[in-house]
Design brief:
This protein has 177 residues and is an alpha/beta fold. The protein has helices spanning 24-27, 35-42, 52-60, 99-106, 117-125; strands spanning 4-11, 15-17, 45-51, 72-75, 88-91, 110-115, 131-137, 145-146, 155-163, 169-176.
Length: 177
C-alpha cells in the first residue's frame, strides 16, 4: 500500500529553512554521513510532491541538480520552468484533486512529501500523511519556515531512532490515526 512520507531535516527548534528561506545552516553539516540513509529511503519512492520554493531551490543548485527519475508534482501558483527529460507536473490549488493521480504514479512504491511544510500540512489535513522522517540537526535557528504547520493535533508513534556522528538525530514516526 502506498504511503505518504515526509522525509526532511529540521533545526532543533523545528524549522526547515532559516528566516531568509535558506538552508546554509543545513548544508554546513555536509551530506556524507546521511547518504546511506537517503539512498535507502529514495529507493522506496515512486512519486514526489514538493512546493515551488523547494523546486526553485533545486533548480538554483545547477542544471544537473534535479535528479529525480520519478514523477513529481510541484505545487505552485507561478509559472516555473520544466526540467528537460524529467516528469515534473505543476499543480495550483488544493492537494485533494491530485492525490489519486499521485498514488497511481507511485504504483507499489511510496510518495515522498519533500516540502515545504505548508504543502505537507495539506496532505496531513487530508489524512494522507503516514510517516514523518525528520533528521533533527544540532542547531537552533530561532525562526524561519516551520517543519509542519498543521492546524490540528497530529499524533505520532516513534518507530526508529538513528544517531549520526555530527550530533544529528534521525527520528522516524508513524502518524497515529
Amino acid at each position: 500500500m502506498t504511503r505518504f512520507r515526509y522525509y526532511v531535516a529540521s533545526s532543533l527548534d523545528g524549522f526547515i529553512a532559516d528566516r531568509k528561506n535558506g538552508i546554509d545552516w543545513l548544508t554546513a553539516f555536509g551530506f556524507a554521513e546521511f547518504t546511506a540513509d537517503y539512498e535507502r529511503f529514495i529507493a522506496e519512492i515512486g512519486a514526489i510532491v514538493m512546493g515551488a520554493s523547494t523546486y526553485e531551490f533545486i533548480l538554483g543548485e545547477g542544471p544537473d541538480a534535479y535528479t529525480y527519475d520519478v514523477p513529481a508534482w510541484v505545487f505552485t501558483h507561478r509559472d516555473l520552468p520544466a526540467v528537460q527529460g524529467r516528469d515534473a507536473r505543476f499543480h495550483a490549488g488544493d492537494a485533494a484533486p491530485v492525490v489519486d493521480d499521485i498514488m497511481a504514479a507511485a504504483g507499489d512504491r511510496d510518495v515522498w512529501l519533500v516540502g515545504g511544510g505548508d504543502v505537507v500540512a495539506q496532505f496531513a489535513r487530508l489524512g494522507r500523511l503516514d510517516e514523518l522522517i525528520v533528521t533533527v540537526m544540532p542547531v537552533v535557528l530561532g525562526g524561519g519556515a516551520p517543519l509542519l504547520p498543521v492546524d490540528h493535533d497530529l499524533g505520532l508513534r516513534l518507530t526508529e531512532r538513528t544517531d549520526f556522528p555530527s550530533g544529528a538525530v534521525g527520528l522516524r514516526y508513524d502518524v497515529v490515526r
